[in-house]
């Protein structure tokens, strides 16, 4: 069967080369770079739904041939035709931009198998290019069914690293429909929700016609325009998670373009925190992803920040992006996907913390180990180990319960909740989730 298969491919390759019996002429490209291709309608219809529809639209022959026009560049079209005839393609000689153009053209012609293969190649071999051009690529893949894999990668990357959106020179011209999708997501992380409000004001002011950012200089028409530009986004901003001082200084001055009930409810929420408001308060955006810039040099972060693994036997640490402060209760899960000799889960402060070593040996680290002991070195020259729970290993799920009102911490291990750690009763006012691991450890973090 393999010999027969090779013979068939060889025959199609020869047909593509000789053009014998062609009945289609395609003019590919745009002036001044247009090239004429001679092809066979049967091959095109068999391989592509796009061409199948095209030939059903009663295209008349001229001098015995169908005539079609395509804006796809001749070089890209040559590669696509070679694939359609020979089911063979080599992407190794193409630059990243050429691979992307080939993907977009293949999607246009509905070559689903080729689209899948190119997306996998981009994800594997051209990831730096995607990240560098992420706003352009997410707009190119928007609402294109066959490009869902690349779209999802870009979306996850933006949620993981919001700076690639907010600090881009292309942000002011970014597609508002995609921006709306991003702001709806719980995993779109910023250090403080006020960042989203401030950057949206900048975006709205930067639309045409441009409006200066000083609200004291706005006229009536500019107030109306700003209210219209922001209207689709207001409900997506999680105002209740903006610290009261920031809300008063940076949001309240814009009360004329905000719903009255929003202002009143937020003030009530902060002044009387235990009041029962008849509103749906969205959850705080999750920063429970590992932070590449606060990570041991021999640890590897994958899966858009959710998974960290060790490739060396040296014990190292990594903290999450989520900042744990203000008078809130924070809960998150760490799943031990692969156990190492000692697995440690807990919290740390950023001051004088060394990610190249074990968290529990430092004055600003508090962790629970897989042997069932807690470990800390706070205000002490010696590590303190205390028995806390049974040991745990592969597949274990540890939930951390951090109460920043009382500055205490407790853990749930595999569904069993244990009491607050007795000697962790004077924790700092600003903390981060942290783990320490060595090879072959692999830990996943997620909101509880």
Automatic annotation (TrEMBL):
Could you tell me which InterPro entries the record lists for this protein? B30.2/SPRY (IPR001870), B30.2/SPRY_sf (IPR043136), BACK (IPR011705), BTB-POZ/Galectin-3-binding (IPR051481), BTB/POZ_dom (IPR000210), ConA-like_dom_sf (IPR013320), SKP1/BTB/POZ_sf (IPR011333), SPRY_dom (IPR003877)
Keyword Signal in annotation: no
Domain BTB residues, every copy: 22-93
What Pfam families does the entry give?
BACK, BTB, SPRY
UniProt keyword annotations, A-Z: Lectin
Q: Does the keyword Nucleotide-binding apply?
A: no
Where does the B30.2/SPRY domain start and stop, copy by copy? 268-448
Extract the GO molecular function terms from the UniProt entry.
carbohydrate binding
Q: Which PANTHER family match?
A: BTB DOMAIN-CONTAINING PROTEIN-RELATED, HL07962P-RELATED
Protein's recorded name: Concanavalin A-like lectin/glucanase domain-containing protein
